[in-house]
Amino acid sequence: MKYTLCLMALMLTACVTAIAVSTPAHAQQADGPGFVAQIDLDGPIGPAAAEYVNDRFAEARRDGARAIVLRLDTPGGLSASMRTIIADILASDIPVIAYVAPGGARAASAGTYILYASHLAAMAPATHLGAATPVSLGGKTPMPNPLQPEAKPAASASAPAPAAGADAESNKVLNDAIAYIRSLAQLRGRNAAWAEKAVRGAATLTADEAARDHVIDFVAPDIASLLKQADGRRVRLGETDAVVRVAGLPVRVYEPGWRTRFLGIITNPTIAYLLLIAGLYGLLLEAFHPGALFPGIAGAICLLIGLYALQLLPVNYAGLALMALGVGLVVAEVITPTVGALGVGGVIAFTVGSIMLFHNDAPGFGVNVGVIAGLALCAIVTLGGVLWMVMRSRRVQPFNGDTQLADPRGELLEPLTADGEAWARINGERWRVRSESHVELPNGAHVRARRRDGLILWVEAD
To answer: The pTM is what?
Structure first.
């Protein structure tokens, strides 16, 4: 009993010590001057980027950050991921400062929406933003007719005029995007008219032009200048106003975790496509060579990871169906050769399906055409080689059977009596032989097979 109480006391002491060690650090961050969290959003905006921003926003708030600098350098990305990031920005209880940097960076397409949604927006010199016209998986959104005057936005909250020549579905996508970015512009007091131009006509602006047209709040060459210019500005946090106080605060960079990096790799359309190919080939090799194990295990893992990536990406299921059809036709060609008809059709279906699999107009979310071309070329070369070997095998004389033994020569391995049997080596094989002319032949005599009777060859002296 005494030892049990001592053990419990030690465990309680360890817990209290751990809490005492960990708690003051957070208390010091909350009560002290604080810091500014920096989150870098580079590359296409997809599921991995949305999860990274969501996790780091929550972590920065828990750590006591006074503000978040969301550094942008993106060509755009998926609408669903963009809206997830914007929802995190709108729900943030600390200021979010969007900053397009370094020099040469851009906030195109989805990046423009994120810039408009942030409490403060800034750009470094030699950067640009805009080209926010949405694209849909069914095809490109038609642009307005340049020969017709641009529709003027109404003073009320009515929907923008549809683009000339656009179908109903494209109009809905376009009008929804325009209304969305205009609502963000009105929320932050930015230029709503230019926001509509960025969506309707893919307009772009440089950093100085964006500051002049009130699209962003200011231009800052570096983080120190960014915080200095942001300090003292009043922003809207939910239903209340707040003053940004960030001048002179240290900046803490929040790097993406291993899960975010892993998702970023597998949700790259080219990587996801290669995982699917590797999975299919692995399973096919295991099917044709049962018991090899490694191809089947590796193929199953690659296929499952590739399918997981597909459900996070905008997949064209017609392209996926064509790829499956192509694989089926190639397998059918291997099992039942048709002089290339099924194989060529399979290669064509697989190549077309690969091109259709992902939407190439979504920035950063298209399969590299060179990879598709390389795989198609390898498939064509392999199919051609198989067909060449099949045609060549049809012209080769059969190795076994009476045709092969029509006029073979060999030698005796032992003496052959007139009516007895002996062993002879013919065509590199050992045969039991008898004398056709019923004469004795010595060991090593050269003979020629004349006919076959079951497993016995009748020979005569050569």
So the answer is: 0.65
